[in-house]
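Board notes (copied after class):
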Amino acid sequence: LPMNSGPVTALAAMPNGRSLVCASTDNVRMWDLQAPVDRRAVPFQIIPGHHGGCVSAVFVDCSGRYMLTMSGNRGWEGVSNNTCLGYQVTPPQ
């Protein structure tokens, strides 16, 4: 994982056997595990949507077409920002 990424808080393997969804304290990345090794290329794409809460869970349906991510700060700072986001995804083939 990139050195500036926060600790991993949730993982989900895509059914295609090629992609891994990795969540941290502030974002979600979909990694292409079969991408050629190239220091100039980025082997992941950032899935937008989560900011300011720890991503606590990732769910991918068995077809690999849909994904849910859940995050929140549980109100520890006085305000709750619990979020559940749904995505239609197209992982690498």
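Comment from the instructor: The two ends are 22 Å apart (CA to CA). The mean pLDDT is 82.
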